[in-house]
Structure formats: structure tokens, C-alpha cells
Amino acid sequence: MTLVGRIHAAAKLAGLDDDTRRAKLQNIVGKSSTRDMTPAERRRVLEVFENEGYASRKPPRVDGRTKKLPFDGKYVPKFRALWIALYNLGVIDDRRDSAIEAFALGRQVKGLSDVRFIHHHRDGESVVEGMKAMLTRAGVDFADHRPCPDYMLKYGYKIARAQWALLSPVAPRDFWPVVTDLIDQDETHRDLSDKEWIDVMNLLGERVRKLKKVRA
């Protein structure tokens, strides 16, 4: 997660609304938007949140497999990205690597004891397609409706759109104002990096999971 994403996450954990967050940032470094800060100023803001107990000094590491070798392998990055998307859409409740492994080995690939042993394309794609099927049922449209702007081809955009459909089904036009506010960019900004989309998906994911709890 980027510095901006960690700052926003800490502010959410602290229960700060947008106005209060901006006022706090202004008090810390004299700037109300992370967009206008230097990297050193962002680190200073994060340090304040760390000292207040609303941010960890290290980015969170998802594991859950402490008795096994590190969770790695040819297909693991793609497995993890899709699994976190499922978590941020409220489809699954456990985002840990152990939950990914349980899904991969328990439902998609039989006869293996560790994800590291998934080498064959057929097995890797079986897991990927299983996760994508779950995401499709949650509202993600993986089709590329060309011609279209480049940003519409990114998985981050597709997943964030599905999240917004859950959060605000009657106000789809509010999507971009919310997205650009989350990453402190101008409302006309569309060329988000992969890291920025990850920040957006994580922050919207907090809202999706909160909504799911309210409806439960």
C-alpha cells in the first residue's frame, strides 16, 4: 500500500470525516491534501498516525501459514490479487494467504499439499477462473468493450466499478468524484496507476464490508 493509501486507511480507522482529516493534515504539515505533500511530509503525517495508534510502522503482511514455507509460486501474485478483490467486494471474509490456499487446493486443484506445487497452466488457470467466476457473480464485468478509454481495460477500474454499484446503485455518476477524492487527485484525473487503483479498491472495500455488516 502506498503512503497515501496508508494515510487514508489510518484516517478511516481514526474515524475522521473528510473535513476533519484535511484539518488534521493542515495542522501536521501545513497542507490539507496529500496530493500537495512531498514524500517527506507524507511520512511525517503517517508517523503522527502511527504514534496515535492508528497505523502500523510496517505495511500489513497477509500470511496465516506460519508453519509452512513462504507463500510463493508462479501463480500466487494473480491468486492473491483476485482474492483481495473478492475480499473488497464482500464475497469472502478471510483475506489471508491460508484462505487462498484452502480455496485453491480444496476446491480447484486436487492432490497437492502446497500452492507452490501448482506448476501446470491447466491447474493455475483452474484457480484463476474459479475466482473470476465468483467476481463475475459479484458484478465485475471482465469484458473489454472496445473502443473504450484505456483506463476501462484495467482490472482495478472494473472491480472498483462493481464496488460502487454495490455502494451507490442509484448514483453511478458519483463514481469518479469519489475515486479522485480517495487518492487526492483532480476530478478530471483518469489515468490511475495500478497502485492508485489498489488504494481505491481497498478504501471502497472498507465501505463495502461495513455495508455488508449493516445488512446482515
The number of helices is 9
**Percentage of residues assigned to helices:** 55-70%
Mean pLDDT, as a whole number?
A: 88
- From the structure provided, what is the oligomeric state, counting identical versus distinct chains? single chain
Termini Cα gap:
29 Å
Percent strand: under 5%
Shape, per Cα inertia axes: globular
> Low-confidence runs (pLDDT<50, min 5 residues)?
none
Radius of gyration in whole Å, from Cα? 19 Å
How is the main sheet built? none
Instruction: Give the number of DSSP strands.
Output: 0
Topology as a string of helices (H) and strands (E): HHHHHHHHH
Content-based structural category: mainly alpha
How would you describe the overall organization of this protein?
- It is a single chain.
- This protein is mainly α.
- Helices cover 56% and strands 0% of the residues.
- It contains nine helices and no strands.
- The radius of gyration is 19 Å and the shape is globular.
- The model has no long low-confidence stretch (mean pLDDT 88).
Q: Quick summary of this structure?
A:
The protein is an all-alpha fold. Helices cover 56% and strands 0% of the residues.
Describe the protein's topology.
Blueprint (H helix, E strand, L loop, with lengths): L2 H11 L4 H12 L9 H13 L24 H13 L8 H12 L12 H17 L17 H13 L7 H8 L11 H22 L1
What structural keywords apply?
216 residues, mainly alpha, 56% helix, 0% strand
